[in-house]
């Protein structure tokens, strides 16, 4: 169960975006992607029009002010950032983290992470929790949609709630009871988001509206959760997945050729046959999934936290809309809930040399799991041999670009570049073009929300369980 403090922190946090734009669905990832473009262009046109009008007026007016206006600067301010290789790299490096963690069986583990925003502000959250006093080390990635309110709440509270619950599982309990405990924490957590919000809709009074909106925000928004729970003593790794963030284990074997990619989670979308069967079976005669789009009543993920639109009755949603600016209820959604926050859990024994990649779908949109594993393995080798710094010192500002059309690029190893000291930064840069500098600096220069058509928010964590090369 959530501590009271956690809830009140969440109450303080959210600010609903529509107050800025009057456009509720601007950052709604459940809406078709194309619509994300409109408000950006729209406000650009408005802003451009106002700027043009002001310029026209000042030009016409014969007074001293004309000389004071630097039109080249006004125009520059309206353009995007026009990144160079160095400034685009600096942007990814700005969010880097690197730290060690205890691993009694080995020399210790090493953790690298970073994130890159496409939404403004970013809707991804992530964290590390060192709970070695209880025997656990946790890493989490939370990819929010329709805002960051749910993801933020998860980041601050979910891992600690899991640790508290695991402490109460007796040492001799079978592994399945650990899984059951984690599942229960996840679904209880979701109830702790939704139930107080439903109560507020029913019982809240107009003079409490500000606080009520805060309680509602994490129920109206939604988030995926990907939580890795590692026991250094047992060398056991559990990954609990809700949504379409992905955990991939790289196993070195002997030499790079023996490299294997082990999926520790499956993307939970309407494209997954077992997810589709589960949902169809729960809603006979309704067909809530569009098989072409892989979406459940419009949303791309088949499991999520929050997202009351897919969990509440139409009557409750209508009340939320009338009293608290909630969403319009989906038509023909008569048998909620359509989404669950129950995770799918995998368990793995960690072997010497293994590394784990956790990332939001922003990475996987442009990079296959096998390529990500290959990238990290090659990064580790470049780090070990001191090539990273050398490559960065000798970096080239331009690279070979094979295509004019960039819309559907994929990150493949022939374009990989190894010049960043942080493995997560290396993955992000390579997912966004790598050695193709024109692609990389171009896609990095797209301002929000135009960027959303080209790249999603990206969060990457890389965990080297026992890696000398990962450390300094
Ligand atoms: C669908 O998801 C389930 C549960 O995570 C997984 O076992 C299965 O392999 C997935 N199927 C495909 C085709 O990815």
UniProtKB/TrEMBL annotation:
SMART domains: PP2Cc (SM00332). The keyword Nucleotidyltransferase does not apply. It comes from the Eukaryota. CDD domains: PP2Cc. The keyword ATP-binding does not apply. GO terms for molecular function: [pyruvate dehydrogenase (acetyl-transferring)]-phosphatase activity. The chain crosses the membrane at residues 41-58. Pfam families: PP2C (PF00481). Keywords: Membrane, Transmembrane, Transmembrane helix. InterPro entries: PP2C, PPM-type-like_dom_sf, PPM-type_phosphatase-like_dom. Coiled coil: none annotated. GO terms for cellular component: mitochondrion. Residues 108-465 form the PPM-type phosphatase domain. This is PPM-type phosphatase domain-containing protein. The lineage of its organism: Eukaryota, Viridiplantae, Streptophyta, Embryophyta, Tracheophyta.
């Amino acid at each position: 169960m959530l501590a009271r403090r956690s809830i009140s922190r969440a109450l303080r946090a959210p600010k609903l975006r529509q107050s800025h734009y009057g456009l509720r669905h601007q950052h709604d990832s459940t809406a078709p992607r194309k619509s994300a473009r409109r408000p950006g262009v729209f406000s650009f046109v408005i802003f451009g029009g106002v700027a043009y009008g002001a310029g026209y007026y000042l030009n016409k007016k014969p007074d001293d002010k004309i000389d004071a206006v630097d039109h080249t600067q006004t125009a520059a301010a309206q353009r995007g950032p026009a990144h160079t290789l160095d400034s685009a790299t600096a942007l990814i490096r700005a969010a880097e983290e690197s730290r060690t963690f205890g691993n009694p069986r080995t020399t210790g583990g090493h953790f690298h992470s970073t994130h890159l925003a496409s939404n403004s502000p970013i809707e991804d959250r992530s964290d590390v929790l060192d709970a070695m006093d209880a025997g656990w080390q946790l890493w989490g990635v939370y990819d929010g949609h329709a805002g960051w309110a749910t993801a933020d709440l998860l980041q601050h509270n979910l891992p600690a709630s899991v640790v508290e619950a695991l402490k109460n599982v007796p040492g001799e309990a079978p592994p399945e009871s650990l899984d059951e405990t984690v599942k229960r924490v996840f679904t209880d957590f979701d109830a702790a988001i939704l139930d107080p919000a439903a109560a507020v809709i029913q019982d809240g009074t107009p003079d409490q509206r500000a606080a009520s909106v805060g309680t509602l925000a994490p129920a109206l928004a939604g988030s995926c959760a990907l939580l890795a729970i590692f026991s250094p003593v047992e060398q056991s790794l559990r990954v609990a997945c809700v949504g379409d963030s992905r955990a991939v284990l790289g196993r070195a074997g002997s030499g790079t050729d023996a490299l294997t990619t082990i999926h520790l989670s499956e993307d939970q979308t309407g494209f997954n046959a077992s997810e589709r069967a589960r949902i169809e079976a729960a809603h006979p005669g309704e067909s809530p999934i569009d098989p072409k789009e892989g979406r459940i009543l419009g949303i791309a993920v088949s499991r999520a936290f929050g997202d009351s639109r897919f969990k509440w009755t139409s009557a409750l949603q209508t009340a939320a809309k009338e009293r608290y600016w909630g969403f319009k209820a989906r038509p023909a959604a008569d048998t909620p809930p359509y989404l669950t926050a129950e995770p799918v859990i995998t368990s793995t024994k960690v072997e010497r040399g293994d590394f784990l990649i956790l990332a939001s779908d922003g990475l996987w949109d442009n990079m296959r799991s096998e390529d990500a594993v290959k990238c990290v393995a090659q990064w580790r080798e470049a780090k070990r041999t001191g090539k990273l710094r050398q490559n960065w010192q000798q970096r080239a500002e331009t690279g070979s670009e094979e295509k004019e059309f960039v819309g559907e690029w994929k990150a493949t190893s022939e374009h990989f570049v190894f010049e960043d000291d942080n493995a997560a930064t290396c993955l992000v840069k390579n997912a966004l073009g790598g050695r193709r500098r024109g692609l990389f600096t171009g896609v990095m220069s797209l301002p929000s929300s135009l960027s959303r058509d080209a790249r999603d928010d990206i969060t990457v964590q890389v965990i080297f369980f026992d890696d000398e090369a990962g450390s300094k």
